[in-house]
Protein 1
Amino acid sequence: MVMSERRMAFQSGLKAVAPMVAAVTPFGVTAGVAGLDAGWNAALTLGMSVIVFAGASQLASIQLLEAGAAAPLVVIAALLINLRMLMYSAHLAPYFGYLPQRWRVPMAYMLTDQAYALSVSRLMDNTPIAYPHWFYIGAAIPLWGVWQIATAFGYWAGTAVPASWELGFFVPLIFLALLVPAINSRPALLAALVAGTISVLGGSWPAGLGLTLGAVAGITAGVVSERWWRRD
């Protein structure tokens, strides 16, 4: 019975993430091409993809290193860009904090925007599934595997991929697929507007500050407005 419920939870995660896997592929290909253009060898490009496993951070780090930036600056920039993962972890902690470390460590490593959004929507559902960590793993593993394969393909394809394809165009589509279903209330709409506005205005700010500050401001606006509307 237990094995059956675990299998069902894992398969539910696989089904939920399936529509998003294809959208991640062009982004991973772009990361591979960026490593090649920077003059990196295959081991370094693919090793970074495995260790960092974060698209925006990988691309930013490659660009900074190619420009000759100091290593500490590259690390700080990557951490700032991925600062939202800290907020994701804090949100998931009440649901997964009881798990042993052998579960929490790989789950933290595989944390992505998609895995977080899918898991939170399922955890906050009125009819949550049993063994939600198996659902999370089912959603996270395909994203990790496809990312590594796409990065490798992008590296080996190299200059064969025309620049006119604009592979980065697909990246916003990934986040739109997550954002639109989540805007189901006035606080959520306000949070999206605030975060989006600051992120766009701060698009040229260094070290991904626009994205990070946009995320923090959006969350703050959503929490404050929800309390205000609830009080009224």
Protein 2
Amino acid sequence: MTPPMTPPECHGISVSTALWRDGWYQYARLLPSPNYGPRPASAQIDLIVIHSISLPPGEFDNGNVQRLFINQLDWEAHAYFQSIKGFEVSSHFFITRLGALWQFVACGERAWHAGESSYRGRKNCNDDSIGIELEGLEGGTFEAPQYETLAGLSAALLQAYPIAHIAGHEHIAPGRKRDPGAGFDWPLLQRSLALPARYFPAIS
């Protein structure tokens, strides 16, 4: 796996806090992706979108997700990869089963994680969201270290950006996507962040 890299100069939104440098989080391993673009000039970064991913599905800790996001996945390495061959995608962050945190796109830039989507009355959620991928299976459960890392990262994002909504891919692309799915513990995340229910999709 390519080692973490020093973040390049970035022309996105700059956040001047001890935790951030030009949209790069100081506690993440940095592996810049070529799959990003500028946000619209009017965009407000007010949404966190939580996803789940594993490549191949159900196999963990093999570096394939990182390779996918930097366009270095070997399409011939597994039969499943043929179904996603040529995809150019990215997320701002990826959290492994052990809670390790990777960042691929500066938060001021538009990562390619949401696809066709709509939430809180707005379409094209890539324009104004932060994408966080959790290593796991759609509908499956997640590990305690992942929730700990997710809560810490989300708290840092809440301090740095005008976050008003936290949702799953399934909520912004209903019928098309189902991740992170029923195994994700939304009440645990809400309690960890001490946020009111209005930040979240309907949860029980």
Protein 3
Amino acid sequence: MKCLSELPQGYRRILSLDLQKDKKLALRINIAALAVAAVMGIIAGVVTTREYFLYFDIVKIIIIFAGMFIYLVLHELVHGMAMKFFGSKTVKYGFSLLYAYAGSKDYFNKNMYIVTALAPMVIWGVVLMILNLICGIEWFWVIYLIQIYNIAGSTGDMYVVHKISKMPKDVLVFDSGVSMEFYSAE
């Protein structure tokens, strides 16, 4: 199963998404991300005891921000690795005004794109959960805040998966990194 380098004959664009241009959608996704982060933070705050909060210091705060930046890069690398796995010859990485991205000049079918979209959240979610389990309470919030960033930061990916799941089976996705186009022959 490989992605396509050209759009097949008879396909037409059925949807375009560009969070740089569609400010209302970008705002809705960012509000949803903040809501996810708040819920995850509240749940962990209720479940944990006060002693979990005693381990914060400036070094751990610096590690949290460095970890979030490193995670952002790794998140996009996983998107790119998934694109390559599905046959993309060239993956482009970058930072736009609001987002980091991985993009390609190829067309991915529905299942390929769902895997590509969700791979970073799932892979890093498992890695961060394991780290949380083995690192003890003094590192709980450092790791968990990066996990919140992982899940909340994947809200846009989850939105796209929700949209594509309702599309025809033959849908092809062109993801340039900063925008996406969805095509179908149906």
